Amino acid sequence: MSLIHLLRSCGRVVPCLLAAVLCAGTVQAAGPAAAPHTVPDTMAQRMQACTLCHGKEGRATNSGYFPRIAGKPAGYLYHQLLHFREGRRQNAGMTALLDPLSDAYLRDIAAHFASLDLPYPPPQPSTAAPAELARGQALVLHGDAQRKLPACVACHGQALTGVQPAIPGLLGLPRDYLIGQLGAWQTGLRHAHAPDCMAQIAQAMSPADVSAVASWLASQVLPANTHPAPPASRPLPLRCGSAPGAAK
Amino acid sequence: MSVLSSPVVRRLLWVALTAALVLSLAVVALLARQLNVAALPPVANVPAASAEQVERGAYLARAGNCAACHTTRGGAAYAGGQAINTPFGPVYAGNLTPDTEHGLGRWSADAFWRAMRHGQSRDGRLLNPVFPYENFTLISREDSDALYAFLQSLPPVTQPNRPHGLRFPYNTQAALAVWRELYFEPATFTPDTARPAEWNQGAYLVRGLGHCAACHSPRDALGGIQQASALSGGLMPGPGWYAPSLHARSEAGVAHWSEQQVVDLLKNGVVHGARHSEGATAMGPMAEVVFQSTQYLSDTDLRAMATYLRALPPKEATTASEPRASAAQLALGEQVYQRHCVDCHGASGQGAANAYPALAGNRAVTLASHVNPVQAILSGGFAPATAGNPQPYGMPPYRTLLTDTEVAAVASFIRQSWGNQAGEVTALDVQRVR
Predict the structure, then answer these.
(1) A-chain residues near B391 (CB < 8 A)
(2) Are A174 and A223 in the same domain?
(3) Window B:45-104, CB contacts with A under 8 Å
(4) Over the stretch A21-65, which tens digit does the pLDDT of each residue have?
(5) Do A93 and B399 touch (CB under 8 A)?
(6) Longest Cα pair distance anywhere in chain B, in angstroms?
(7) Which residue in A37, A43, A49 is closest to B396 by CB distance?
(8) Could you tell me if A151 and A235 lie in one domain?
(9) Could you give phi then psi for residue B275, rounded to 5 degrees?
(10) CB pairs under 8 A between A and B
(11) The pTM is what?
């Protein structure tokens, strides 16, 4: 009787003292030889480590909000992965996951999620007052020339779905998350590549501005075409480390 | 009559006082010996080094994983500032760039050698042993000079060194002197002539620059390591993972592995066994060691380390009895496993070939310390991305998805199923790890 046969019979009725003596010389072996289990050799399978939290459309938990990453521009996602790994964005869980990963793999991960084409859920109805929403809309679409605040659409696309390769869309995100990120730029908790244009913009906004903009953005329905726009042909109004070569 | 008027008592008191005085003088003398270190003069110019020496130094810096402490996340290379958490407070790594004010710009090769060998700074101060000079003391002068040449070739960064956040009295030079008297003796690496050259090369790397014992050894209340228990496993206070014993077959001993398997683990971060349960994956802090350090070592050096590690005398850890989990806990654990774990790790804990480790017969799961399986469940993690495994599979973090009770139940379940016979994990255990 071969050793394998003997080991397999351990799981059945046969008293396996003899096999136990033989087993003792090996590494703590599993009991019966289990059927082999395989998983697909794909990026999607590898990214199960990410999708449990980020879900298809983002996921809200009592520990914070894990934003939607599907369909964001690859350059933007790659930059965020670098920021988490290098401490420019603060999230201990993200940092621990990304620490042993190479830049090349981070690019692959970003490209994978950028390639996903998934539907957006309808926005949550807004409880903000009409005046606040109007203020938000004005800032998003027209900015404030007096304070030299450019309109959000000037960089993030006329449809606010983002611009390739590295500017994210602003629709389909919860109000609290938007307020949190703008606040993080104001306090210096969140950084982007220098020159940090979003820090400059956020620091020129008042709390009322932040609330208004977040309320309006979060209440918008996405357009039929949710993909990021092709790279901008006109220069951006601000110099921005995340989008080098695009500024005036 | 008072007891003091007794001549016997008086004599005893005199003996005791004299003994105490002699002891105090001895302690003072020992501490003075530690503290009386001459400052070495600053140098005006650092001689240029050859390209070969700088390249060798860069390689040695990888082997020693200097950047792990001396480069802050997202910061300039080797400019210091990273906090290393100890039970006594945080210690901040220094600036190793050739900046003349804050770095090593005024250090001679002699001063650098003295720091590595004796743990003394150029100005004579004792260095904190979080900088593992207990291990680096074994470096050869030639290697020290190469490392010095590499560091001097870096761009200087004007970053001041941050004072340590150690509590009194651990923040005093006297405390360091005491610690050194107890735990540190400068040493030269002496090859064991009874062993082959490859073993000696491995010993030089593992005991020296590799400083494996700094994590893989138990530390006492003063943070010291007894030489006899080096590499016998230790809980890492900062990261909160357990670095398993390299002597114990039940933990991470590799005496029964092939040389190629040891090399694969250090080079690729993952090794596949003849049986799936014989494999291993570097996770948590070890994933970073492979990612930043050992994946860059030459095959010759890795084989030498494998030779040394495989020859470590087997020594099992003494473990307390293993409490069995209750039937209710195992039932809950199985439910959690079916919901969250079975798709990757298999219905019998057999794992998935070339992707996810088996849990059945997995030494990391059945360690006497429950810390690592709980950390893995809470934090998830990827295997390190290496040339041999460039797109590793990863495990999601369940920290926000499972309660302490659920984590404890599933950890107990995997530790006590499919032939695994480790102790149960309680919700309190999980809370402590969080």
Answers:
(1) 43, 46, 105, 108
(2) yes
(3) 72-74
(4) 444 433 444 444 567 889 999 999 999 999 988 886 666 665 667
(5) yes
(6) 87
(7) A49
(8) yes
(9) -105, 150
(10) 144
(11) 0.87
